[in-house]
Amino acid sequence: xxxxxxxxxxxxxxxxxxxxxxxxxxxxxxxxxxxxVTAFEQQSQHRVxxxxxxxxxxxxxxxxxAPFDVFLSADQEKPSALLESGHGISGSRFTYAQGxxxxxxxxxxxxxxxxxxxxxxxxxxxxxxxxxxxYGAAAVETLKALTLWHAVSQKLVIGESVGxxxxxxxxxxxxxxxxxxxxxxxxxxxxxxxxxxTKLHNPIYQDAVLLKKGSYQLAAKQLLAFLQSEQALSIxxxxxxQPAGQQ
Length: 247
Known about the structure:
It contains ten helices and ten strands. It has 247 residues and is α/β, with parallel strands linked by helices. It has two domains: 3-98 and 205-238, Periplasmic binding protein-like II (D-Maltodextrin-Binding Protein, domain 2, 3-Layer(aba) Sandwich); 101-195, Periplasmic binding protein-like II (D-Maltodextrin-Binding Protein, domain 2, 3-Layer(aba) Sandwich), CATH 3.40.190. A five-stranded mixed sheet has the order 2-1-3-10-4, with helices on both faces. A five-stranded mixed sheet has the order 7-6-8-5-9, with helices on both faces. Helix 2 (30-43) packs antiparallel against helix 10. The longest helix is centred in the N-terminal third of the chain and has 14 residues, at 30-43. It is globular.
């Protein structure tokens, strides 16, 4: 048994009663987080409520006093800023995953999404708001690296989060969308997608942080410890996430 798993199990044994944890989770990580929470709840007496949205929106809610215990962002900057502002707990921030960007096509399109993107053979391209969502910023970086930004900028449909960008393409309101690879799990193989090479955008390092409210709750600390366990990492791998620093 590795040291981290032993630490997690020891923490569980120290808790005499169930606690409710409020977790703010970036939209791209909602699907794996649901599976991680299921495993966590099975091994502890605790319950986790998930609020999902763009990292920028969740960050603003935390600054405004939203009662979250932990924050799983899609970037490193916002958790770092929460530490500086006193909303996060010093020493608690860590990188839990490195995300992957893909371009997905709406149902019925059989051509390679990369080819459709390059040829401009679409009327709408959905991305998350680059000011709020790190995956949206990575999409803009990719389009600029491919020298396609000016050609497609008038065709963009901006969603608040990658979740909304995914909804646009699934509903047929956009023919292509930049989303997180984890969301492809939802498409059940019906939608062709192109894994965007990491060299086309800055790495998507995703950090978690314990928030001030959660510092009084052992369960919140247990959840963050569990997020670093082999079981949680295996779930992340199933959804296309990699340990930080790997490609």
